[in-house]
Amino acid sequence: MNAVKIGLIGLGTVGAGTLEILQRNSRDIAGRAGRDIRVTRAAVQNLAKQRMVDTTGIELTDDPMQVVNDPDIDIVVELIGGDGIAREVVLRAIENGKHVVTANKALIALHGNHIFEKAQEKGLMVAFEAAVAGGIPIIKSLREGLSANRIQWLAGIINGTCNYILTRMEQDGLDFSEVLKEAQSLGYAEADPTFDIEGIDAAHKLTILASIAFGIPLQFDKVYVEGITGVTIDDIRYAGELGFRIKHLGIARRNQDGIELRVHPALIPEQRLIANVDGVMNAALVMADAVGPTLYYGAGAGAEPTGSAVVADIVDVVRALTSDPNNRVPHLAFQPGSLAALPIMHIGQVETAFYLRMSVINRPGVLAAITRIFGDSEISIATILQKGHDAKGKEVTIIMLTQVTPGNYMSNAVEQIEKLDAVTSKITAIRLENLA
Description:
This protein is α/β, with parallel strands linked by helices. The protein has three domains: 167 residues, Rossmann fold, CATH 3.40.50.720; 162 residues, Dihydrodipicolinate Reductase, domain 2; 86 residues, Alpha-Beta Plaits (2-Layer Sandwich), CATH 3.30.70. Helices cover 35% and strands 25% of the residues. The chain has 14 helices and 17 strands. The strands form two sheets. Strands 7, 8, 9, 10, 11, 12, 13, 14, 15, 16 and 17 form an eleven-stranded mixed beta sheet that branches. The protein has a six-stranded parallel beta sheet with strand order 3-2-1-4-5-6, sandwiched between helices.
């Protein structure tokens, strides 16, 4: 049987890792796929650049459309990222009758509904395991391994940059800005880290996971997104004293009012396994009705971890090349006609416990005024700690943990408390997730 010919769009970090794996493990990969797999053409940005991998026998071009329009190419592997030229490449590949493998979370989160519709019309596969959590097979697990289950919720540490920064802040007492510079120097953060530290990257990934878990269309624009720039050393230290660790989470939960889609920092009880995922590692915790909780852990980025997921997708596509398109695993786990238009909840409707930090003037009646506002807002307080100088008239820090309350109740209470003349700074509010 003839070899399956691959057109590779992008030979950067992930592209090089993918090619390296295909070359090094070619015999095992062919044995699993049932056919040889060969990269015959690749599009690169700079033809003169020296490559870290062997490109012998691969025709290089700086025009991605030459690869996509090549009639001999069976599968187009898109590894350039973004949703500009990458979208054009993928749609042209589908138009030309080629299967697609991509590691592009932004592309899938923003344009996946349209891309999958076009692929469905043509009877083609679009595989995207590498788009979420690098080498962790979380998409395959949700789409296939847990297909007997009704997924109740999932929570993931799905951005390695944020996790690295929070880990270093906690373990070494460094400020956010210090660790961010370090992460940039090590290649864990981009020169412009906005997508990572403001939660956008994690929101792209959560959009994909939630769609597969709950059978809903991709809806990135409805995800609540909050980054880690407001988390301080003090918050991390106080959380530790109370038995929690702060992690940046993507959370999707099904309840009677709809689907929660939210990305934000959260306090997690320190005994939870996911609370102890450190550095650049990723993890996803899934709660399902039949199997209960399952945890998926591993490298969320990097040349070979991500390349591993890309190659696994290529193998899946090769195995399915001769199968009836109607009998393949659906792109978003559920058959297209079964996707449900469940409402996405506003963050104000979402109920969680909260950690609060505020600076106040230490004088009689201040704490009473604060607790009265909470009582009037129907918010119960679980814990109160005072940190700082005890003398009257001095500024002290008040730490509170609340019971579970709707987000809009908390927002209203915080707004009222900040208006008190004894409160000297903006209040930090971080959600608390038990993940039990």
